[in-house]
Amino acid sequence: MTSPTAALQADERLVHPEFTGTAAEYFRIWIVNLFFTLATLGIYSAWAKVRKRRYFYGSTRLDGDSFDYFASPKAILNGRIIALAVFAIYALAGELYPQSRYAFWAVAALAFPWLVVRALAFNSRNSAYRGLRFDFQATTKQAARVYIGMLAVVALTAGLAFPWFMARQKAFVVSQHAFGTSRFECELPARRFYGIYIRATLLFLAFAIPGVALTGYLTFKQYDGSISLPQAFAWLAWLLPVLPVYIGYAVSYAYVQARSTNLLWSKVRGGGLRFASTLSARKLMKLYFGNVIAIACSAGLLIPWAVIRTLRYRLANFSMIVAGSPVHHMNPSLAPVGASSQELGDFFNVDVGV
Amino acid sequence: MSVIEAGYFDGRSSVKRPVGIVVSRGRMKIIGRDLEQEFDARLVRRSLRIANTPRWLYLPGGGACVTSDNAAVDRITRERRYERVLHKWESRPAYAALAVALVVGMLWLLVDRGVPVAVERIAEHIPVEAEAALGRETLRALDERMMRKSTLPGSRQDSLRAKFADMARAAGETTPYSLEFRQSFIGANAFALPSGIIVVTDDLVRLSRSDDEVLGVLAHELGHVKHRHTMRRLLEGSATALIIAGVTGDVASTTSLAAAAPTQREALALAAAGETREPSRGEGKRIDFTGLWKEDCEQLYGLQFKPLEKQGVYSVSLCGPAGCLDPGTYRPNTTVQGDPTYDVLYAEEILIKQPRGDSTSYVKCASEVMPEVPDR
Fold first, then answer.
1. Res. B347 pLDDT band, cuts 50 70 90
2. How many whole angstroms separate alpha carbon B40 and alpha carbon B177?
3. Closest-CA residue to A168 (of A190, A148, A152, A183)
4. B47, B278, B337: residue with CB nearest A68
């Protein structure tokens, strides 16, 4: 891949984000969040989410300035209570009247575009940089076109249109975002996404097929009686067939992540800004495997360390290309920065994890 | 009176200007080149203090100041008590260590003590109709997948129902229940479903020497019904899965692992059909399997391995105290060793894979061959 700096124009400069977060600092925030969340039977989780996000935003500096996140925890809590109530009704009703599940799924599918728009708008409007809010400006109708219309195409083509859908969906999310009044543009060629997904599939098969064949052979030999595992290692017989499939999945997942993120950012521009991402699929994969092992061996205590190092790697491979010295302006239709969402007077500014 | 160095944004554009902030007598002054503003300090909102990340002061009118001087921000604005407490917890290693200990303790308490108590409460408040519907649905699901209509004569079913009712009445038992007879590949078995449905398999009835043996098993199941064990196990599984999902929230994003919780129906099927065991491997030498095998020798019911003419080949049939069903009712012929259904651990212990995929361990309880029961 060519270095983003190679294509730098005369009046452009390259800006690398600076990440000041540390594993030790985040560990303290994480464990205290966890403690209060458990102690309050989950209620604190909304406050925990805001503190966590605030820490990541505040620890990220771009061109000398950090980000801020000021969502109201109460709005998040409301969203979570509603989500929990809906889930409880779904679970109970589904158990009593199994047919009601279909109705629920139909309603959920119809409500999904609306939820996506609410969630992305909530998060972006509660994020700011240099005293200006971000925004997500898509209408529910536009989201429905992507998440219902295009997903229907994926279903009708038995999944063959999936890379095309991913390209359209990612472009949709990015191009509906704005910083102040500066909109971002993003045109993603579906052809490139097909390349990524085809290579990822081959990569998965390259790991999974020999692995499954080998373990299949070994299992056969075992029943045959020609080899036998000692009692203490009997669990290996169950782990071995699963392992190559998981490795294949993780490798292709890391590959898709790295390549599609790189491709996505290379196509985003707006407000005098361009972006570049140089993630390496190989390094991301090593990072994921290291994380799995570290988290498993530490009974979860290294989760903060894994989160921080993943974020640091991602940010170290991200850069912004600034043309001249662009000035961005406030979007007059949004409340001034710092005012919490409740004061926007919009009851439906609930946060949902999409 | 000290000056706090800060950056100023007017909130209308992204241009940053260096300013100094001075607070005196409740008034906040922002002073920079071509810039002087004054506010009531109480109207200034500030961002949360998290570690040592830069702090924002949001001014009335839409402007904002940013500074790294966290201590000064805390000094000049009103700090609420809980903010100070949270910051203390988040910034001192000793508190972090305490939090680790408390989290471990609470997780243990929650799963070991809290969940059963909560389940107790919830189970009490589950409406009778809801539990009845749950029991009905589960029975229907099991009928579809694992069971068929009973082949026992109606008169025999009725006589068992009557005897069991008498026994329950004599014991002063008032728990409502209903007794269902089914034919199933799970062998001699009985289990309780929510809302008091007790299912008995034909094999259990056939393989018993007397009705008293059947009634003994049914009395045990009525105990499960009385204490709503199945309902509780179901709720406990869901609650534990929820806690795990909540605690491991952000693991998925860093490991490409997605947390998976077993669905309720699977949990029920497992609860209904006994425990699962980890399968294992056997040795290479030839073993004589002839005899009666049971999950544990105290049990009344088991499997008989009877040698066929060809050496090393056995027929397997279901047995109870009264004797065994016709040879091969469980499996007509098998070599045991080398058959993927069986896993030989020792000469006296084997694992048998159940049709659902999990295995049950059987130990050898007798080497003699028992006679077949006459068809009743």
1. confident
2. 72
3. A190
4. B47
